[in-house]
Specification:
- This protein has helices at residues 2-7, 13-20, 24-36, 106-123, 155-159, 163-168, 179-190, 244-258, 277-285, 289-313, 329-338, 359-375, and strands at 11-12, 40-43, 60-63, 69-75, 79-85, 91-98, 131-138, 173-178, 199-203, 209-214, 217-218, 317-321, 349-352.
- It is globular and about 80 Å long.
- The model has no long low-confidence stretch (mean pLDDT 94).
- The strands form 3 sheets. The protein has a 5-stranded mixed sheet with strand order 6-5-4-7-8, with helices on both faces. A 5-stranded mixed sheet has the order 11-10-9-12-13, with helices on both faces. A 3-stranded antiparallel sheet has the order 1-3-2.
- It contains 12 helices and 13 strands.
- The longest helix is centred in the last third of the chain and has 25 residues, at 289-313.
- By secondary structure, the protein is an alpha/beta fold.
- Strand 9 and strand 10 form a beta hairpin.
């Protein structure tokens, strides 16, 4: 019944009976218990608001999204973002912090993340006791226990320095996830994968990362390394896990240095140090001939990537996600043209995400809502009376 209430606006006992199939007396008992637990509120009856005129007025109820907070944390390599949201995922406050890459040890990241969460809560007038669930996304594989495996240079555990233990010391429900996996959570909840059970959310800005959903389930693997992009070091035509933005910038700088850009391309007049993926893809979107040629080359590489992912996971959709998606149209167009040559299975659709650069934050909030929804009735804050 709580699941029903979580998804609807104002409802009556009759609405519950139609949806859940309980007897009226049982439904009323459960509704009253959920009110006593603080998860529902009883509103003025139908007659009081002018919606009913004859017979017994219908009792009206509503879910309380403000009964607690969820916290989504994007603990990226270069920045931290904390989003406070209500139990339906509607944002209440956002706080950001740039990360100094020269001072990003595990302990420094723990302090920065914990401090930013506390600052966001304080600034918005809340405290830790208002939090029902927290999810943090990191650029590292994460297993089912929220832990990251060792890496040859310690990077993964530096990115995830036991965040589960850190926030689990006070947050009732804590979930630690790979950032690309949270992109997939976001796409399936509110993005380009709504209603789709088999897809890949491809984070493709500076580095490649993939969140993979097969048969409606998010893939993780024994160590959290399902779809780890180091595999592309060994794929001809890709040769590495560099993202689309990085590849576009590298090709543009090389063409600039070799003086092979068309005379009409705006890239010719740019300082090579100022050429980045966003600039190249933005110009391609505007029809710049030099940038369009680069977009074609990047798109052919994307076709190989999509072909490998489509072959491995039999996906129906590849979603180019993250900040790079805004300018990825010409790249995707080129990839779509080349993709049929890359696999024998039915060709997956390639689309651009609409969730922008904050997609990991969106996914972290969605995942925290999922955790709160699954565990709310067991939380002390919503304990049954007596």
């Amino acid at each position: 019944m709580l699941g029903f209430a979580w998804d609807v606006d104002v409802f009556t006992v009759s609405d519950v009976l139609d949806a859940v199939g309980l007897t009226r007396s049982t439904a009323i008992d459960v509704l009253e218990e959920l009110v006593s637990r603080g998860l529902l509120i009883e509103l003025p009856n139908a007659r009081a608001v002018g919606e009913y005129s004859k017979g017994r007025p219908a009792r009206r109820f509503a879910f309380r999204p403000d009964a607690a907070l969820v916290v989504g944390v994007d603990a990226g390599r270069a920045s931290l973002t904390v989003t406070l949201a209500d139990l339906r995922g509607d944002s209440v406050a956002v706080r950001r912090l740039a990360v100094d890459r020269a001072h990003d040890s595990g302990e420094e990241r723990r302090r920065a993340a914990a401090g930013l969460v506390d600052a966001a809560l304080t600034d918005a007038g809340f405290s830790r006791s208002d939090v029902a669930a927290l999810c943090i996304g990191v650029p590292a594989p994460v297993n089912a226990h929220g832990e990251s495996p060792a890496h040859r240079d310690g990077f993964w555990r530096r990115m995830n320095p036991e965040f589960g233990e850190l926030f689990g010391a006070w947050a009732p429900l804590v979930r630690v996830e790979n950032d690309a996996s949270l992109a997939a959570v976001a796409e399936r909840a509110v993005g380009a994968a709504v209603g789709c059970d088999d897809f890949v959310a491809l984070m493709a800005g500076e580095r490649l990362g993939a969140g993979v959903c097969v048969d409606g389930r998010l893939l993780r693997g024994a160590h959290g390394g399902a779809a780890e992009m180091v595999a592309f070091d060994h794929v001809n035509g890709v040769e590495g896990a560099w993202g689309l933005g990085h590849r576009a910038a590298a090709l543009a700088r090389a063409a600039h240095a070799e003086a092979t850009l068309p005379a009409s391309s705006a890239l010719r007049a740019m300082d090579p140090a100022q050429i980045d993926g966003k600039a190249v893809l933005g110009l391609a979107k505007q029809g710049d001939p030099g940038a369009l040629d680069i977009a074609r080359q990047v798109g052919e590489t994307l076709a190989v990537i999509a072909g490998v992912l489509g072959s491995l996971f039999d996906s129906t959709r590849i979603i180019v996600s993250g900040a790079v998606a805004d300018g990825a149209g010409p790249v995707i167009d080129a990839a779509v043209r080349a993709l049929p040559q890359e696999l024998d299975l039915p060709v997956p659709e390639i689309v651009a995400s609409t969730l922008g650069g904050d997609i990991v934050s969106v996914g972290a909030v969605c995942a925290a809502v999922e955790a709160a929804r699954a565990g709310a009735l067991d939380l002390p804050a919503f304990a049954a009376a007596g």
